Amino acid sequence: MAVPGFQEFMLPLLLITSDGNDHTLADVLDRLSRDLHLTEDDRREMLPSGRKTRFEDRAAWAQTYLRSACLLESPRRGVFRITDRGRQVLRNGPARVDIAFLSQFPEFQQLRRSQGQRPPGDGGDGSEVPGPDQTPHEALETSYQNLRRELAQDLLQRVKAAPPAFFEQLVVDLLIAMGYGGSRRDAGEAIGASGDGGIDGIIKEDKLGLDAIYIQAKRWEGTVGRPVVQAFAGSLEGQRARKGVLITTSQFSQDARTYVERIEKKIVLIDGEQLTQLMIDHGVAVAEVASYTVKRVDLDYFGAE
């Protein structure tokens, strides 16, 4: 089973508050989970950002939408309860409470207009949220991840098409951006300077050079299997090295990944997908186009509530 869309949370949440008591989001989650027949895995599923569970995010947005339509009210910080309008809605026995249902209330309509969203009946169907199962946070995160995925694909194609010297420089820039290699000059001299037994370069683990990391970086086309990784491990043994990074623009086989998990030496495998994600994370070969700051109410400012 999967976590249902946040609109599916609205009626169960309103029913929970029908007791007239004050509630917090934390104290209704277990009941909501049972009413929606969710498993523990469903409850632990995270948003793409990894900062919040999808279940908690959808429950919070359901509460926000119900308050926007004045079916719930917030008497004080972090607390909500049903209103007279909410009780009347339940007495009518609705089969479903969703955005289209809430749009009958003028307060909700006004809120949607103030957000620059099209009111129902004006060429829309009442479901303004991108994807009827997504909260606004999820829609934002999904759009961001889609843009990031497209950027990563473009980066990988350009890296594969670039000359070998460019790829070596890219490795240098990325490792420096990640905090390795000491100075740019040190790293530049180390990468591509060895060529000894499958080792393409040696880089400092930190700026003090307390340990060394041996590197092999190749633009392979096909899947990199265990023999290549095993040969790299042998090269490390010949250097009496304990740590290595193997970078490719393609991918590693599962057998290769299993192998590095079982050996004593620490070898990190970076495939093309991870390479581009690291480039994006550390600002290598990418430029910022726009930045959006998502804000929330500063509850401390309203501390007197």
Which helices and strands occur, and which strands form pairs?
Elements: H1 10-16, H2 25-35, H3 40-44, H4 54-68, E1 72-76, E2 79-82, H5 84-91, H6 99-102, H7 106-114, H8 136-161, H9 164-177, H10 184-190, E3 191-196, E4 199-204, E5 212-218, H11 226-238, E6 243-248, H12 254-262, E7 266-270, H13 272-281
Parallel strand pairs: 5-6, 6-7
Antiparallel strand pairs: 1-2, 3-4, 4-5
Tell me briefly what this model is.
The protein is of the alpha/beta class.
Structure explained in plain terms:
Helix 12 links the parallel strand 6 and strand 7. The protein has 13 helices and seven strands. The chain is elongated and about 80 Å long. With 305 residues, the protein is α/β, with parallel strands linked by helices.
Please give a handful of descriptors for the protein shown.
single chain, 305 residues, alpha/beta, five-stranded mixed sheet, 13 helices, 7 strands
Order of helices and strands: HHHHEEHHHHHHEEEHEHEH
Category from helices, strands and their pairing = alpha/beta
Counting DSSP H or I runs of 4 or more residues, the number of helices is: 13
What spatial order of strands do you see in the largest sheet? 3-4-5-6-7
